[in-house]
Design goal:
This protein has about 80 residues and is an alpha+beta fold. The protein contains two helices and four strands, in the order βαββαβ.
């Protein structure tokens, strides 16, 4: 799995976050995507590597500015609890 952290400038509210999340989900097969206007970022978890240029284009087409994109291998945390 891969985790992408994308700097997204211009999001002002929760609706902006939803627009970005929806656009990413429509364009890519992702496990999870969350955006934060206060942190000015979107975090994407996916099985496969993403086309970073297409990702940037998808977000800029909405009117937002994309900064740095960080990609790193991601292992989902396993929680061990009582049965």
């Amino acid at each position: 799995m891969w985790k992408y952290t994308v700097q997204v400038d211009g999001m002002m509210c929760g609706m902006c976050e939803s627009h970005v999340n929806d656009a990413i989900r429509k364009k890519f097969m992702v496990k999870k995507v969350t955006s934060s206007h206060s942190k000015a970022q979107s975090i994407i978890e996916t099985e496969d590597e993403l086309d970073e240029e297409l990702l940037k284009e998808t977000i800029t087409d909405l009117g937002y500015t994309v900064g740095q994109i960080q990609k790193e291998p991601y292992q989902k945390k396993k929680w061990f609890g009582k049965k």
